[in-house]
Amino acid sequence: MADPLIKFLAPRIVLISNEHSFGTGFFITQHQILTCAHVVRDALVNQTPIYAQYWTQDEKGDVQFIKEVAHKVLITEMKDGEEYPDVAVLEITSNFPHGIFLLPEVKEEILYTRDVEYIAFGYQKQSVHSGQNIPQTVSLNYEGEEDANGNRKIIFENGLVQPGMSGAPLVERLGVRITGIVHMTRDDVADLGAYTIPSEAVLKAIRHLDEKLFSTLQSSDHRKAVLKTYRKDYPQFPLIQKYWKNLLAFSLVMFFALLWFLPISVSCKNLTSSSSSRHHSIIAQTFGDWLGVEVDAARNKVRNKTAAFLFNWWFLMGLIVIVGGLWLFITSVWILGSPENPELKLTLYNDKKLDSGRITHLDNNHQAYFLVPMFPFQKEIILKPEGREQVTINIQTGKRNTLHYPFDFKLEPVLFMRFNNDLILFDNYESYILEITMLKNNLKERYDALSRTGALLVGNRDIEKTPAFIEEVRQDLSGMEATLQQAVLDTISNFQHPSSLNLDRGDSIRVSLFDKTDSSLFFRKKIIIKNDLTLILVNPLDTI
């Protein structure tokens, strides 16, 4: 099963194209599409057709790529020579057969934070030029915002946003909430992110372009209809949707089993003299009398049997099991991985009892799920993915507790020098300083190095300074002078994890190597962490 969020987004994304350029849009009604003004402005000036292309699926499951001409286009005006707020609304004649996006309410306040993962979903030039026409997902992190001449732009980083994604929706991964649209990339060849237009500016532009459309988007009927499709296409309780047949079968089996035991319990009630049976009879009688004031014997008999059924211990126990099972399924934790991490191992700790935990792996679809019994209504659990920092999570009943690896888990702050016999140059035993700088917040960590040539492992989930690992390093250093070999081993054994570097995939760091005596710089390189294990060769022959 693919990521349900991607399956949710894909049918709602539109490829906007003309003779010379293309961009991305998305449906906000069944026949109206939101995109950026600069995507379509040249086509309007040159009076060339503007095409809206989207995927659709028929009853047989066959997928088709539909291409229509936009018969009506509304765009915002340029301001001081700049495309801002850079919003356009396209209209097609046919009704889009799938779900649409729900824009925020005007009164809804969107707060951008570094703790939330945002994704942009749209068409990139690489896929379009290759003829694939498949929308791409880009994960982004909030960096800040700028306000030039009253034009507010939100800045995101750590994602490669290529031309073609202009007009793509910016979505909070958790909660699937539109927070804006992509305005332009910051760099089309590096993972530097993008500028986006916040949702309040988008809504203001729509209101200026078409007051009737704005009123429709903000109406309660429209929002209820869209939310209904959201619940269908992106369910709140994915496990119940996946296993509803099993749950239904289990409930029916339990119900008929209770009916089987009920006559035995009722018939034996008056034949036994146990205190529990007498108590049971009193409860049944009381409940039956409470149902009515008539003293008709036949009716009271029916009432009493009804009460006996409702207060039957077998029935109550079965009801508890059924309700408990449903409760368990709506308090599940759903972990979504990626093909890059097919062997990810996770350890689940309940109630912060870190002395023991349940270990599981992602399945063949790069997913894992935990069934966590939740009482009371909110509870904390701890997840420790291999090679990542442990994270404490507030799991809430009645909400979709979905986590995404690796985005929701920070890398362990592991920085480790591993020397290789082929690389080592000791330069008369001179020592060096290895400096790691986090470019996001300018935090620095410095470490003693025995050589100016070696390798640095960042976020290596396999690093454990066990005797076996030390022996492996010793084998790499075979042939080296015993004193120097021991010095390297001592350096590795005493190496401590940095305290301030909190790395994640997509973060940028700068690696520098200085002479310890005169602080002269031998090596400097900017590195983008691309996965859990990034190998950095520290070599002074590289360009500083």
From TrEMBL:
Manganese found in the keyword field: no
TM segment ranges: 247-266, 313-336
Taxonomic path: Bacteria, Pseudomonadati, Bacteroidota, Saprospiria, Saprospirales
Organism superkingdom: Bacteria
Organism: Candidatus Opimibacter skivensis
InterPro entries: Peptidase_S1_PA (IPR009003)
Protein name: Trypsin-like peptidase domain-containing protein
Key words of the record: Membrane, Transmembrane, Transmembrane helix
